[in-house]
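User: Before I run my own analysis I want an independent prediction to cross-check against. Here's the chain; please return only the C-alpha cells and, at the end, one sentence I can use as a sanity check.
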Amino acid sequence: MKGVLQDRARRMRLFATGLLLFMAAAFVLLRRYGGDGAGWGYATAFTEAAMVGGLADWFAVTALFRHPLGLPIPHTAIIPVNKNRIADSMATFLRDNFLTPQVVARRVTGFNFAGAAGGFLTDPGRGGQSRLRAGAANLLADVLESLDPDRLGDQVRTGLARQLERVEVAPLLGQMLSAMIADRRHLPLVEGAVRWIGEALEANEEMVRTMIRERAHGLLRLTGLDSRIANSVLDGLYKLLAEMIVQPDHPLKVKVEQMLESLADRLVNDPETRERVENAKRELIANPAVGKWWQAVWERLRLKLIGAARRPDTALGGHLTTMLAELGGALKDDPRLQGQINRFARRTLVGVTARYGDEIVRLVSETVKRWDARTVSDRIEGAVGRDLQFIRINGTLVGGLFGVAIHAVDQLL
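Assistant: C-alpha cells:
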C-alpha cells in the first residue's frame, strides 16, 4: 500500500512538473513568435501567469519537505527542521482528542461491544468462526510444541500431586459412597462384580476342580466322590451368583450393602481408617511407577491435542466451532450478558486510557523523534504528496485564469 501511494504521488509530481514546463515553453514561444492580435495577448498572459503560479506553488510544496534547488532559503524544509515539534504536536493531538478518559468514555458510550462480537461470531458470511477457530487451534498447537514435554509433564504432575496432598481423600470417598448407596447407584457395580466373579469362575473351572480333588480325602478319590463334590461345589457357586443377580434382597447382597455402608461411615468418621487412606495416597503419589505412567499418559495426550489442533476437520475443530457459535449466540441474544460485558469493556478502556494514555502518547512522540528527517519527509509526502501535486496543478491553471482576467481588465482600462 505504501509503495502504491508513492507511485501515485510520483506520477502526479511528474505531471505537475510537466505542466509547468509546458507553460514555460509556451510562454517563450508566444513571446518569440506571437502576433499582435488580441488572442495572442490573452494566450501570452495566460501562460505567463500560469508559469508564475506554478512556480510559486512548486516553491511552496517543495519548501515543506526540502530546500528548493538545494538552497538553504530561510523557512524552507519545514517538516525536517521542525520534526521534533511535529512529533510533540501529533502526540498532543492524539492525547487531547483520543486518549483522555473523558473522550474515551464519551465515544464508547452506547456502543454495544458484546452485540458486535456476537454478530461477528454468529455470521458465517464473515468467516469469523473459522478464522478464530483456526487461530485458537494453531495457537494451542504452537504452545504445546514449543514447551519441553518432559519438563511440562513434570510440572503438571507436581502441581497435581501438591493439590492431592492438600485434599483429604477419605471423607470425599466416604461421602461419594454414601450418596451412591442412597441413590441405589451401587447396585450396578455390585451386579457387575458378581458377573465378573462368575465369568472368572467359569474360565478357571478346571483349576477349581483340580484344587478340590487335591484337597479331598484319599478315600474320596478312590471312590470317585471327589469329582461329584467338585461338581456340587461349582453348581452351588453358580446358583449362588445367579440368585444374587436375580434377587434384589438376596442376603449376601444385603450383607455387601451393609459392608459398604460401614466402609463409608469409617471413611468419614474413623480417624484410623482415614489415616490409612491418606498413607496409601501419599505412597501412591510418591511411587516412581505412577510418575512414569503419568508421563506416558501426558505425552500421548499432548501429541493427540497437537494433531487435533493441526487438523481443523477433527472433533477439536468441531468443538471449537460449537463453542464459538454458542458464545456468539449468548452475546447477541442475552441483554443481561451484553450489559455486563459492555460495562466491563467500557471500564477497561477508560481504565487503560487513564493508566497508560500518557505512555502511549510518549511512545508516539519518541518514535517520531527517533526517525531521521528524511524518513519523516518521505512518509508524510507519501501520504499526502498526491494531493499536494494537485495544488501545483491547480495553482498553474488558476494562475493562468487570473492572468487572463488581469489582461482583460488592462485592455478595458
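Sanity check: The first helix runs from residue 2 to 33.
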